[in-house]
Amino acid sequence: MVGASVLLFALALDGGISRLDGALMLGLFVAYTVFLIRQSRNETQSIKEEYAAEFGQPQESGWDRHWAMQIVLIVAGLGLLVLGAHWLVDAAVSFARTMGLSEMVIGLTIVAAGTSLPEVATSVVATLRGERDIAVGNVIGSNTFNILGVLGVSGLVAPTALPVAPAMLSFDLLVMLAVAFACLPIFFSGYAINRWEGALFLFYYVAYTAFLLLAAQQHDALTTYGAVMTTVVLPLTAITLAVIAWRQWRLNRAERAR
Fold it and tell me: In the beta sheet, which residues pair with residue 17?
C-alpha cells in the first residue's frame, strides 16, 4: 500500500495520469494479485493448524453450507452494498452542490466516504465476529486496489490523461502518503491496532475533512486551524509514532538476543 501510494504521487507530478501510467498501475495490480494467490496456496498446513487453534474453526450453519448458496450470498451482499453506496453518493453529491462545494472537495469527502461504506461495513462485521485479519486485510487491499486497479483502469480507458489538480499535489496526496507511512509504526507495534490508535486515525480523518470544508468555504478560521494542526498536533503525533516504533524495535531486538 505504501509503495502504491508513493508510485501514484510520482506519476501525478506531471499533472495527470496518462494511459502509460494506467497500464503500469494495472500491470502491477495484476502481478500483486497473482503473488497473493500463490502465497496463499503455498501456506503450510502447520500455519493453518496454528490459525485454527488461535481463532477456531469457522462455524457452518445448515442452510448455507453449499458453495453455490455461499456464492449467491456473496453476490447479493456485494450488490446491496454497492446499491446503498450509490444511493448515498448521489444524494450527498446533490446536497453538497447546493452548498456550493467543488467537485474535488465532493470527491475527496462525500464520494470517497460513500464508496468506502462497503469496506466500513465489512471491517466492522469482521471485527465483531472475531475475524480481525479480514478487517485489516480488507482495508489494505481496498486502498491498494483503488490506487493500482481503479486508477489504472480509469487511466487506461480515458481518452486523455486524468488531470491531477495542483492543490491535490501540494496537500491531499501528501496527506495520503503520511497516512500510509503512519500505518507502519502502528502495525509494527505488537502487530495489532489498539483502540487509541484507531481513535487517532479517526480523529485525523475528521480533522482532514474539516480542513477541506473550511478551505472550500474560505472560512476565517482556516488560517488558525491550519497553524494549530501543522505546528502542534502533527508534530506531536509524529513524535509519538516515532517513540512507538523505537520502543518496539528495541523490544524485538532484545527478544532476538535471547
Answer: 162
Q: Which of 130, 142, 99 is nearest to 4 (CA)?
A: 142
Give buried/exposed letters for 149-164 (b at 16+ CB in 10 A, else e).
Answer: bebbeebbeeeebbeb
Beta strands in 85-188 (DSSP E): 162-163
Say yes or no to pLDDT of 64 above 70: no
Q: Is residue 219 part of a domain?
A: yes
Mean pLDDT of 247-256: 80
Q: How far apart are CA 245 and CA 242, in angstroms?
A: 5
Question: Using CA atoms, how far apart are residues 202 and 139, in angstroms rounded to an integer?
Answer: 14
This prediction has a pTM of 0.73
What pLDDT does 9 receive? 93
Task: For 115-153, write each residue's pLDDT tens digit.
Answer: 777 788 888 888 888 777 777 888 888 899 999 999 999
Q: How many domains does the chain have?
A: 1
> 58 pLDDT exceeds 60?
no
The C-alpha cell 480533522 sits at: 207
User: Can you tell me whether residue 17 is helix, strand or coil?
Assistant: strand
Residue 146's alpha-carbon distances to 13, 85, 247, in angstroms, are 19, 16, 33
Range of the domain at 216: 189-258
Q: Is 232 inside a domain boundary?
A: yes
- CA atoms lying within 13 Å on the CB side of residue 92: 18
**Residue 185 burial (C-beta neighbours within 10 Å; 0-12, 13-18, 19+):** buried
Query: Residue 212 domain-assigned?
Result: yes
Q: Mind listing the pLDDT tens digit for each residue in 81-105?
A: 778 877 877 887 787 777 777 777 7
Q: Could you tell me which of 239, 249, 21 has the C-alpha nearest to residue 151?
A: 21
Domain-located, residue 132: no
Q: Distance between CA atoms of 197 and 201, rounded to whole angstroms?
A: 6
